[in-house]
């Protein structure tokens, strides 16, 4: 198949492309070409929001003049992400004129200096009313606007309350970090998103939204409950104890109460936790991929949570006599969930780790790569996988190392070398370890320092986490242990 020619609007602007050159390009590529718009990087969120707004506007305007397909944001192209799609032009003269006008505006050479800012302003005012072909770009615009640009705009006001009051009047959900997802019109299902959670109204199809926009097609739930201990907040079920962000949950609850139900703030309740547990339902999905709260019929999907490891549950167990029975079961005091690790070899252990990642909905199992044979010279990289893509969050690359230890010794820092080199070499966003041993404090300290320095996410599973996970996957456990 012949490779399509590309038309990069930013390159056209920088080269000062002539209208006749565009006409020639379109005539030679009337069967289709790859249109590209660079999303410029920026130090300030306000600038980044504008760059995404520009990209959204340009791509939407171009798409109207042809048949489009295969849209993507290319993150592999270097420092700048590129929005691109294939277009088969239908209105050549109009497309020629528009491409020329936009290239002139981007170069600062447009004959009408007000055309570009006025066009962007009009698009910005009407963006929520339009049915967009590329809602991803609009969602990225709102993500940067709400999560950063608003703070910069607010600093320009002598009275910050005036700014917040304006937001509350125009887009009240923005004040709590949410915006109506621009995919809503595409699938005719309203839902609201933030960088941490989603809100799905009662009339919307929860399963359809989750399948379409998180790649999670099948899931089951554990019934959970919310509790607070020593200033921290947790969700507990028969199989998990998860630490959650109170701020994330509070924003969602406030948005539902204040914006959708027009009720008073739940901060005004003398005991909000009692009120919450008596008016809400809590569920934990498989592998703790997400937590679902049902509040007045609205479903809140909380994505950012932390599964406590064995040592953390053990400490919690000592401090919380009220939940001793459940936490004791989770750390194996009541039920023998141990595995005989002497039954498997290095290759089988890596396959077991592969399966655990495969069935974990946090990760996109289509992206898993098991690198070479066990103990091979693969730079210590055993398994590579990307997280699921979510709205406003690009997939993150994780590198997992698998360390089978059959003796009673622990996994120390001296047994896991070159972690920083591996992370840097493969440009990983996250690093994880699977081991059949106890993880020594020296290794925890080493990884914590690296993670703090690089802003790296970690996923560490010692024998305790592995055995607990396998106890909830009996078929998988039976496959590897007699």
Structure in words:
The protein has 482 residues and is of the alpha+beta class. It has 3 domains: 126 residues, no CATH class; 126 residues, no CATH class; 140 residues, Trna Endonuclease, Chain: A, domain 1 (3-Layer(aba) Sandwich), CATH 3.40.1350.10. 41% of the residues lie in helices and 20% in strands. It contains 18 helices and 19 strands. It has a 10-stranded antiparallel β-sheet, sandwiched between helices. It has a 5-stranded mixed β-sheet with strand order 15-16-17-18-19. Helix 1 packs across helix 4, helix 3 runs antiparallel to helix 6 and helix 12 runs antiparallel to helix 13. It is globular and about 75 Å long.
Corresponding CATH architecture of the largest domain: 3-Layer(aba) Sandwich
For the largest sheet, list the strands in their spatial order: 5-6-7-13-12-11-8-9-10-14
Radius of gyration equals 26 Å
CATH level 3 topology of the largest domain: Trna Endonuclease, Chain: A, domain 1
Give the structural class: alpha+beta
Number of domains: 3
GO molecular function: nucleic acid binding
Protein name: Restriction endonuclease type IV Mrr domain-containing protein
InterPro entries: tRNA_endonuc-like_dom_sf
Provide keyphrases for this structure.
482 residues, alpha+beta, Trna Endonuclease, Chain: A, domain 1, 3 domains, ten-stranded antiparallel beta sheet, five-stranded mixed beta sheet, globular, tRNA_endonuc-like_dom_sf
